[in-house]
């Protein structure tokens, strides 16, 4: 208890509180801009923390982290353009609700679920960090492979009604993930002699092209007018509505935190896994992908709980849970602090101040996000389609170039836009492709390392964690096949257009 008092006293400083609010505001702007991820935002502001006290600097970066991860859902819902990779799972239901005139409700769900997931994640981080970190160390190569394999079963759910096309899309994603240097031996694959492809296909330009620019192409082709139809919407967060959202939100919070704890896995996977599991346990799950609020709640709570989960190995072991937390390690070391067990005993005011401050980030984020919903809507409504979609393309170019300051990423983005356009016109879902790209490197690296460690034997599949994950994978596949046979969903071309958020 004394450690908590030290942390709260350190947090009760005008500079720290000012940095908290500033960080959240910057994070919202960063996350809402396609291509400018939370990692980019945190890295850009890192030098400004050098002149601050350690806690103030950390709280500024955590505010950006939490705000950016949430705000990626704003363009995902309104214009089908995920601001951050973790928001890709929100696109289908979020944008479908916008086209149904329920965009305000979708945005409210997003901020509520994001803050609930983040807050729950911070509580778990604060009280269970040492124990969870020890468990996470047990996730070796074999367990990482089985976890990725389990997550790949999400393709069956997001492709329901278009299973064959979904599997083709997922396989294409896995093929794209193989481009670049071999993860084990460093041998170039599918580079066709191009030095620019040695580092692989950058994920953010790929995602921006698939979702944002391909949508711009389609909207321009159809000369569609953006009609969000939000003004007539009367929405109230009633107790009944909250009770409906709660199970998916809590499920997503738990899944997101657990997956976030595993070093190197990240929140991009957790949002898809949580979405899939929410769909699995929900009655009337045929509405998922067509504007189901509970799908948004699961995905949004998972991705924000994953941010707290990623800090568990970061703070307790000095092992970054994801790319953004690796930048946070840099912020600590600049101030002469070494992440690890000694951080809890040597600087309790800092570590418990971080816990309390990160929880406060989500309270501030909720207030800004909930009452700022009208601002996001009015901003989009005020922009005519003939300006909006060219602006989206310009932001896509800027965001793609900003990732690595490489014009080749812009080329990748436009190539992905053409691919996304062709796939959408052909009825191929885009989500499986993204899932394949995210999980491909994790699955390949984990499998090959496990085989090398065990001299080509599959005995690692009988280890406790891989065995449990293997059983869950088989159960997930079996359940998807059973549900498809029991109640097949056949979409007409018109219905497919509605699912993808098209208007004629």
Give the helix/strand layout.
Blueprint: H1 2-11, H2 14-32, H3 38-45, H4 54-71, H5 73-79, H6 91-99, H7 103-136, H8 141-152, H9 154-158, H10 163-177, E1 180-181, E2 188-189, H11 203-222, H12 239-261, H13 267-281, H14 293-317, H15 323-334, H16 341-346, H17 348-371, H18 373-381, H19 385-404, H20 407-425, H21 431-453, H22 464-486, H23 493-499
Antiparallel strand pairs: 1-2
* Beta-strand content bin: under 5%
Structural class estimated from helices and strands: mainly alpha
Widest beta sheet: strand line-up: 1-2
The value of Rg in angstroms is: 22 Å
State the helical fraction. Answer: over 70%
Q: What is the β-strand count?
A: 2
Distance separating the two termini: 61 Å
Q: Which runs of at least 5 residues are low in confidence (pLDDT < 50)?
A: 488-504
Biggest β-sheet description: 2 strands, antiparallel
Count of helical stretches = 23
Specify the overall morphology.
Answer: globular
* SSE succession: HHHHHHHHHHEEHHHHHHHHHHHHH
Mean pLDDT: 78
Pfam family, one: TctA
Keywords: Membrane, Transmembrane, Transmembrane helix
Transmembrane segments: 20-46, 58-79, 109-129, 135-155, 167-185, 197-220, 241-262, 350-377, 389-422, 428-447, 459-482
Domain DUF112: 17-435
């Amino acid at each position: 208890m004394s450690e908590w008092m030290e942390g709260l006293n350190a947090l009760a400083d005008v500079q720290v509180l000012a940095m908290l609010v500033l960080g959240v505001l910057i994070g919202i702007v960063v996350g809402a801009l396609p291509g400018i991820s939370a990692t980019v935002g945190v890295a850009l502001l890192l030098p400004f923390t050098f002149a601050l006290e350690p806690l103030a600097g950390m709280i500024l970066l955590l505010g950006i982290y939490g705000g950016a991860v949430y705000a990626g859902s704003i363009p995902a819902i309104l214009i089908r353009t995920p601001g951050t990779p973790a928001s890709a799972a929100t696109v289908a239901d979020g944008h479908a609700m916008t086209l149904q005139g329920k965009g305000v409700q979708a945005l409210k769900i997003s901020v509520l679920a994001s803050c609930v997931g983040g807050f729950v994640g911070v509580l778990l981080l604060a009280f269970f960090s040492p124990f969870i970190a020890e468990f996470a160390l047990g996730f070796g190569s074999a367990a990482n492979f089985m976890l990725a394999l389990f997550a790949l079963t999400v393709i069956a759910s997001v492709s329901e009604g278009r299973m064959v096309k979904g599997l083709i899309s997922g396989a294409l994603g896995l093929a794209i993930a193989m481009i670049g240097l071999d993860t084990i031996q460093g041998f170039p694959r599918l580079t066709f002699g191009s030095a620019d492809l040695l580092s692989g296909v950058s994920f953010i330009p790929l995602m921006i092209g698939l979702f944002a620019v391909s949508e711009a192409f389609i909207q321009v082709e159809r000369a569609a007018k953006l009609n969000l139809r939000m003004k007539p919407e009367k929405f109230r967060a009633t107790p009944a509505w909250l009770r409906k959202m709660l199970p998916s939100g809590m499920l997503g919070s738990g899944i997101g935190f657990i997956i976030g704890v595993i070093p190197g896995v990240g929140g991009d996977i957790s949002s898809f896994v949580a979405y899939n599991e929410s769909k699995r346990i929900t009655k009337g799950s045929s509405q998922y992908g067509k504007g189901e609020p509970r799908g948004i709640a699961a995905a949004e709570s998972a991705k924000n709980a994953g941010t707290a989960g990623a800090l568990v190995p970061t703070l307790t072991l000095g092992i970054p849970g994801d790319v953004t937390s690796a930048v946070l390690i840099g912020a600590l070391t600049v101030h002469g602090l070494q992440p690890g067990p000694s951080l809890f005993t040597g600087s309790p005011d800092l570590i418990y101040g971080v816990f309390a401050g990160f929880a406060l980030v989500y309270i501030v984020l909720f207030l800004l996000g909930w009452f700022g919903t009208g601002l996001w809507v009015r901003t989009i409504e005020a922009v005519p389609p003939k300006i909006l979609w060219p602006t989206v393309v310009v932001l896509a170019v800027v965001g793609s170039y900003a990732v690595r300051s490489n014009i080749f990423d812009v080329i990748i983005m436009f190539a992905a836009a053409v691919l996304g356009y062709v796939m959408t016109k052909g009825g191929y879902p885009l989500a499986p492709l993204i899932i394949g790209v995210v999980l491909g490197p994790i699955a390949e690296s984990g499998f090959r390392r496990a085989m090398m460690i065990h001299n080509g034997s599959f005995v690692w599949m009988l280890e406790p964690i891989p065995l449990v994950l293997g059983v869950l994978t088989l159960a997930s596949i079996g359940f998807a096949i059973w549900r498809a046979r029991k109640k097949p969903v056949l979409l007409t071309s018109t219905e497919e257009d509605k699912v993808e958020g098209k208007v004629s």
